[in-house]
Design a protein that fits this description.
By secondary structure, the chain is α/β, with parallel strands linked by helices. It is about 40% helix and about 20% strand. The strands form four sheets. Strands 1, 2, 3, 4, 5, 6, 9, 10, 14 and 15 form a ten-stranded mixed sheet that branches. The model has no long low-confidence stretch (mean pLDDT about 95). It binds adenosine-5'-diphosphate (ADP).
Length: about 475
């Protein structure tokens, strides 16, 4: 099959910059597409976090029209796994900041201009480096203006929604300064606001999201975050493709972050990881007590309030908890207090990739009580490490966990329901160890790599190209 030229535009890409699952996907899908023979390249802003990643500066600068003037832009070229080129657009006034989307004082107020810069910059860059993509694959609201700015004869575009809860909404007063045509302004305007995701969802040739169930949920009033009407209109152009995981980076048999390695045929190393994690966090070192892990942004979406409620219900059971996360101030405080005042609960507040690996490996159970979850990666990583997930049956969690086969599922959004499910799972760990180990081995052997996923995106790109050329 013909080799495609594919341009990714996004705000995050592992290992250069990451705040969540989006970064994992943008860092892993392009190498898998390149392994299929495609010419894939990625465009990112040169966030401060990205500056420590090795890159060479290209001849420039590149002029990107934003607001009333032109942003003069340094262009850097880096490479990620598989030799995939990443172009980093440098404009320090917009991106040389402590956080990616905000800092301790809140979200950045100028993100409209930051990501208008990214979208215009990506299209300018193609001319600058003489790269004419067949398809541009854009991710989330930060890159959602690309399909709108794409000229009529331009390439096909695919917009992937990693989380419909974040849309890039700004005051409509900004519209005149965006230098858009009247038609583009209509795409961007939504109920008296500027809404970047809505604009991309209107204009992209095809749409995707990160699990089949989430693709259905976002077409409903409950799950549509105000965009369900538009998504229903475009339902024939929308598919759900499950994320994969990077099976090399997330592999308990080779993981250098772990004190001991293991595989589905021999779980002895997992017991050593559990003991080491208990010791590291200051929990009593006991093999018999079920240890529940949680690695998460501490955000409302993730059901952190439900988790805290569940802790109350579970107080009488002999369980331990290992938590890693950062976000909501109230949740950080509750977790700090529990860590200081109880012997069975320990939380580390912050972002710590190495510790996350040790929790995926060292825990027995893993809690994912999300309100909604587009795909979710943590339940996939925990399965890969033989740590049985206890998840709410929504979105990608429902698609990737089979009850009593690869994890435990509950439905009701309540601390009580999560507590019951965790208690049931802990009971299985204690009293049905053979079944528990069968679940661990089954999950660890599941194939979750990106090859299967890349084949699905490959088909989607070809469909988008045919559609753009008016052949379908
Ligand atoms: P989301 O993108 O909505 O945050 P996902 O489950 O898709 O949720 O992806 C979360 C990713 O971020 C996973 O790779 C998880 O291990 C990682 N992660 C979340 N919180 C932390 C943290 N505090 N430290 C390290 N990694 C984290």
């Amino acid at each position: 099959m013909a080799r495609l030229k594919i341009l990714f535009v996004a705000s995050e890409c592992v290992p250069i910059v990451k705040t969540g699952g989006l970064g994992d996907v943008v860092g892993a899908l392009p190498p898998a597409l390149r392994a299929r023979g495609h010419d894939v390249r990625i465009v990112l802003p040169r966030h401060r976090q990205a500056k420590s990643y090795p890159a060479e500066v290209l001849p420039g600068p590149l002029g990107v029209p934003v607001g009333a003037g032109t942003c003069w832009t340094g262009v850097y070229r880096a490479e990620i796994a598989g030799g995939v080129p990443v172009y980093l657009l440098e404009h320090d006034a917009l991106f040389d900041r402590e956080g990616v989307y905000g800092d301790a004082s809140g979200e950045f107020g100028d993100s409209l201009w930051r990501f208008l810069f990214l979208s215009r910059g990506a299209l300018e860059l193609c001319r600058h480096i003489d790269f004419a993509p067949d398809v541009i694959h854009v991710h989330d609201w930060q890159a959602a203006l690309v399909p709108v700015l794409n000229p009529p004869g331009g390439p096909a575009t695919v917009l992937s929604v990693h989380n419909l809860g974040y849309q890039g909404i700004f005051g409509v007063g900004e519209l005149p300064r965006m230098r858009l045509s009247p038609e583009q302004e209509r795409d961007v305007e939504y109920f008296g606001n500027v809404n970047l995701l809505k604009a991309g969802l209107t204009r992209a040739t095809l749409l995707s999201t990160v699990s089949p169930r989430y693709a259905r949920e976002i077409q409903s009033a409950d799950g549509g975050a105000g965009l369900d009407g538009l998504l229903r209109q475009r339902r024939r152009d929308l598919v759900g493709i499950l994320n994969g995981i990077d099976e090399a980076r997330w592999n308990p048999a080779t993981d250098l972050h772990l004190p001991a390695t293991y595989d589905p045929d021999d779980l002895a190393g997992k017991a050593r990881c559990k003991a080491a994690l208990q010791e590291e966090l200051g929990l009593p070192v006991r093999p018999d007590v079920p240890l529940v892990g949680l690695v998460s942004r501490l955000a409302e979406q993730k059901g952190i309030d439900i988790f805290v409620d569940a802790l109350g219900y579970l107080a009488g059971l002999d369980l331990q908890f290992a938590v890693l996360g950062s976000g909501l101030a109230w949740a950080e405080q509750v977790f700090d207090r529990l860590s200081a005042t109880t012997s069975h609960f320990r939380a580390r507040i912050g972002i710590d990739d190495a510790l996350s690996h040790r929790i995926y490996a060292g825990a027995d159970l893993f809690a994912v009580p999300s309100r909604y979850e587009p795909c979710g990666l943590t339940q996939l990583y925990s399965q890969r490490y033989g740590t049985v997930p206890v998840v709410r049956g929504v979105g990608g969690l429902d698609d990737t966990v089979d009850h009593e086969v690869s994890g435990f599922k509950f439905q009701e959004l309540s601390g009580r329901a999560l507590a019951l499910s965790l208690a049931w799972a802990a009971d299985c760990y204690r009293h049905r160890p053979e079944h528990f180990q069968q679940m661990q081995r089954f999950s660890m052997r599941k194939r979750m790599g990106w090859n299967r996923v890349a084949a699905q995106y490959d088909a989607l790109y070809r469909l988008a190209i045919a559609r753009r050329r008016g052949r379908l």
